[in-house]
Design brief:
By secondary structure, this protein is mainly beta. The protein has a domain at 23-100. The chain has one helix at residues 25-38; strands spanning 2-11, 14-22, 42-46, 49-54, 72-77, 81-86, 96-100, 104-107. Strands 3-4-5-6-7 form a 5-stranded antiparallel beta sheet, covered by helices on one side. The chain has a 3-stranded antiparallel beta sheet with strand order 2-1-8, with no helix packed on it. Strand 3 and strand 4 form a beta hairpin. The protein is elongated, with a radius of gyration of 19 Å.
Length: 123
């Protein structure tokens, strides 16, 4: 997991900067690949984020030129941090990746550089 700071829109005119943990993409890829190999629909929490996997289907999506519905995996929250994989070139091909991290503003400093919890000037 990586500690980062994210800009989160809390009101129409205000965004807060908050610390969050995001997973290493390599670990997420491995998790999604395992789900893809199992080929069963799944939804739940992974790495502290909501996630889901949908296996591919032979029927094409509505209003699409695709000849099948590809398998897909997604994790995260749109507008904060979101990552998805779609096997749009076929089940046995590499998935197409999409990462929305535009609201990640910086990596958080290591624990050694952070003030103690509670802050203040306590003895």
């Amino acid at each position: 997991m990586i500690a980062v700071k994210a800009k989160v829109q809390t009101h129409a005119e205000h965004a807060s900067i908050v610390p969050i943990l995001i997973p290493e993409l390599g670990e997420v890829r491995q998790f999604a690949a395992r789900l893809h190999c199992e080929g069963q629909a799944w939804a739940g929490e992974a790495f502290g984020w909501q996630a889901e996997y949908h296996p591919g289907r032979p029927e094409p999506p509505l209003d699409s030129k695709m000849t099948f519905t590809p398998a897909d995996f997604c994790i995260g929250e749109s507008g904060i941090w979101f990552y998805s994989l779609m096997w749009e070139h076929g089940r046995d091909r590499e998935p197409v990746e999409f990462l929305d991290d535009r609201n990640i503003v910086a990596e958080a400093p290591p624990d050694a550089e952070r003030p103690a919890a509670g802050g203040g000037n306590r003895p």
